[in-house]
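Students often ask what a holo structure prediction actually looks like on paper. The answer is less mysterious than it sounds. You provide the chain, you provide the ligand, and the output is a string of discrete structure tokens encoding the 3D arrangement of the protein together with magnesium ion.
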Amino acid sequence: MLITQKEIDDCVQRLADSISLDIKTKFMNNMPVFIIVMKGALFFGVDLLRKIQLPVIFDTIEISSYKSSMISSGQIEIIKKESINIKEKNVFIIEDILDTGNSLKFLIDYYEHKGAASVKTIVLINKQKKHSHDIIPDFSGISVDDKFIVGYGMDINDLYRNLPYIGTFH
Ligand code: IMP
Ligand code: MG
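The corresponding structure tokens follow.
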């Protein structure tokens, strides 16, 4: 056990509060679109959106970079695209972990290329390591050491996503 259910819930509440404030000060005339990055950010995304009490919309994208292993392949593949139109929208990407940064870099470029008015990033877990891209999430939850973790959406070979807490895998 690394992060308890209570710690996750408190963290998600803090993130929801600061994101709500950001929306109220900047985006009330063009409400944002949240993109949950499947499958890792599913649990986090749903809990976060439930705590944002504003009329926002969301969609999902599924990408993969880990080919059934604990090492990032670096190659990102889109498995399922979002279905709503992103043009002129303020996009908030919801990710589970910032590890190498390859996934977020790919997604930021992808939504900018689609003509988003702005692209912001939210990550629950920020791994303490040098990311291969200079990515600083706009909203970041908990920093952890560079260890492989599972639970609360995060997996090893698609297992352990349904653990209600976050643990290290050995
Ligand atoms: P990045 O592209 O290297 O930043 O990796 C981001 C993606 O890799 C995340 O969206 C996760 O799905 C996955 N990932 C990275 N580290 C872990 C981990 O410790 N446990 C489970 N998944 C991870
Ligand atoms: Mg992921």
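Strands lie at 33-38, 57-64, 77-80, 90-98, 118-127, 139-144, 149-150, 167-168.
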